[in-house]
Amino acid sequence: MPRIGKGQKALDRALKHREDIERLLATTPPWALRGWFLDWTESQLRRDRFYLFSENEHAVLAKELSSRMTPCEGWGGYTVDQLVRAALSYRADCSEEDDELLTILQRERPSELPLWLMLRLVGICRHVAGLSVPYTDLETATCTAAREELLN
Description:
Layout: H1 6-27, H2 35-46, H3 55-68, E1 71-72, E2 74-75, E3 78-79, H4 80-88, H5 96-108, E4 113-114, H6 115-127, H7 146-151
Helix pairs in contact: 1-2, 4-5, 4-6
């Protein structure tokens, strides 16, 4: 059996990196990705097919996939739909960016959100709608990586 060299291993890792990005973009709606991350992934895909990604580039993708993109079905005993409805009641008090997010969530009616987006929705519910939702209570999160994300 032929031995696989360092160059081939690096190229295989780069191809897996590219495939992970392509899979993420194909399965995730654009509104569920952070703006900078969407731009970053698209710039990664514009690189040459044989480009070897740096350790930092691999680390950024791994961190996004392992914790920040973890799907959450609810927070603090509330479902995504309940949180969105609570926030919509106080839409006039939201910033323009939060209003745009609430419009998208109202239209799309997702049953789960990525952790980073769930934390943003919880912030709106707490600070704008006045809903008593624990922001850092790790026991109330109904997503697997919430504990790790909040501790980091």
